[in-house]
From TrEMBL:
Signal peptide: none annotated. Its cofactor is heme b; FAD. GO terms for biological process: cellular response to nitrosative stress; nitric oxide catabolic process; response to toxic substance. It comes from Oceanobacillus limi. Consists of two distinct domains; an N-terminal heme-containing oxygen-binding domain and a C-terminal reductase domain with binding sites for FAD and NAD(P)H. Binds 1 heme b (iron(II)-protoporphyrin IX) group per subunit. Binds 1 FAD per subunit. GO terms for molecular function: FAD binding; heme binding; metal ion binding; nitric oxide dioxygenase NAD(P)H activity; oxygen binding; oxygen carrier activity. NADP(+) binds at residues 274-279. The record marks 83, 393 as: Influences the redox potential of the prosthetic heme and FAD groups. This is Flavohemoprotein. The lineage of its organism: Bacteria, Bacillati, Bacillota, Bacilli, Bacillales.
Length: 402
């Protein structure tokens, strides 16, 4: 892009900061009206909750802010590209997105969206789209060409279905064609695609793999979302209630840029809240297999024993390595107290972390509900943990921990 185009894009940064979410809300409305078939790809729940709109607004804002230094947003591009590849986003989708994004800018800004601004944004969008298409093309190629890999979605059979707690059930998935499975990094996820009889559109959801690589199955451990009025539970409830052993399900190859660095042997702290346990289970199993001497602190926070999944597995795996396990329950039952099912009543705090985990040259990985992650992130930063040693992942669209 020429300097004039870059100058125009950067001049729109304050406008995007103010109106970005409105623009992306209009964008999705108009795009889905014109192309309802795209609802077979996008997560309807994230749309209705506004999470996707916020995430896209943040991405557009960052693109404008760093339009003269796009290398600064490479980590964001990589993270989104992984999700796109897992969902099946293809090059032909980008012109549709571009058309409706420009249309939304014009709708929201009105006369302020001059031809000069729209032309500049069209150039900028096409440049950024080309970057995504190129990165994703390589990811599709890598997923297909790896040993045991495949393109798109593949049929898997539910080999085992195991109830882990009142709210979480594990599904052991084996390829229907009985071919070997490609490896994956501890912390990555797969997408599952369901065609539910009473639903108009296909539903795709991404679930972290909750066991180590190298097995003849992929395991996902799914929380059943109930008790609220959001549509989050469409897929999780279907899996819990309708998906049985012997049934088939469509699965994409593993993806994701949140994974354990096994090239390090420095202390490791794995922190999880609720179903954020799932990628940590993969990391725990992996580090014990590959680095049994590496010092690991495994911290899990949940409500009580009724909703605590995979407790016995954590204890069993920990015995094989150099692992210290700590369970936090914020609302333990009498049975939990009698059986000593947990270690600490309450929440993970900065003070507890300061006194009980190493900080210098320690790698921290965490996942869970957004309030949990915000608290952990703030605690670690206040304790002087550097950004390079802080790793986390949102379930769903990107958000902010600030």
């Amino acid at each position: 892009m020429d300097s004039k185009t870059i100058e125009i894009i950067k001049s729109t940064v304050p406008v995007l900061e103010q109106h970005g979410e409105k623009i992306t809300t209009v964008f999705y409305q108009q795009m889905f009206e014109a192309h309802p078939e795209l609802l077979n790809i996008f997560n309807h729940a994230n749309q209705k909750q506004g999470r996707q709109q916020k995430a896209l607004a943040s991405t557009v804002y960052a693109a404008a802010q760093y339009i003269d230094n796009l290398e600064a947003i490479v980590p964001v591009v990589t993270q989104i590209a992984h999700k796109h590849r897992s969902l099946g986003i293809k090059p032909e989708h980008y012109p549709i997105v571009g058309e409706h994004l420009l249309g939304a800018i014009k709708t929201v800004l009105g006369q302020a969206a001059t031809d000069e601004i729209l032309d500049a944004w069209e150039q900028a969008y096409n440049t950024i789209a080309d970057v995504f298409i190129s990165v994703e093309a390589q990811m599709y190629q890598d997923a297909k060409n790896q040993h045991g890999g495949w393109d798109g979605f593949k049929s898997f059979v539910v080999d085992r279905k195991v109830v882990e707690s009142e709210v979480i059930t594990s599904f052991y998935l084996k390829p229907e064609d009985k071919q070997m499975l490609p490896s994956f990094e501890a912390g990555q996820y797969i997408s599952v695609k369901l065609e539910i009889e009473e639903e108009k559109f296909t539903h795709i959801r991404q679930y972290s793999l909750s066991d180590a690589a190298g097995k003849d199955y992929y395991r996902i451990s799914v929380k059943r979302e109930t008790g609220n009025e959001t549509p989050d539970g469409i897929v999780s409830n279907y899996l819990h209630e309708k998906m049985n052993e012997g049934d088939t399900i469509q699965v994409s190859a593993p993806a994701g840029d949140f994974y354990l660095d096994t090239g390090k042997d420095t202390p490791l702290v794995l922190l999880s809240g609720g179903v954020g346990l799932t990628p940590m289970m993969s990391m725990l199993n992996t580090v014990v297999d590959l680095q049994p001497e590496r010092p690991v602190t495994f911290i899990h926070a949940t409500g009580n024993g009724r909703v605590h999944a995979l407790r016995d597995e954590v204890k069993r795996v920990a015995e094989k390595g150099n692992v210290n396990v700590v369970f936090f329950y914020d609302s333990p039952t009498e049975e939990d107290r009698e059986t000593q099912a947990f270690d600490i009543e309450g929440f993970v705090t900065k003070e507890w972390l300061r006194e009980n985990v190493p900080h210098n040259d320690t790698s921290f990985y965490f996942c869970g509900p957004v309030p949990f992650m915000k608290s952990v992130n703030a605690s670690l930063k206040s304790l002087g943990v550097t950004d390079k040693n802080i790793h986390f992942e949102f379930f769903g669209p990107m958000g902010s921990l600030e």
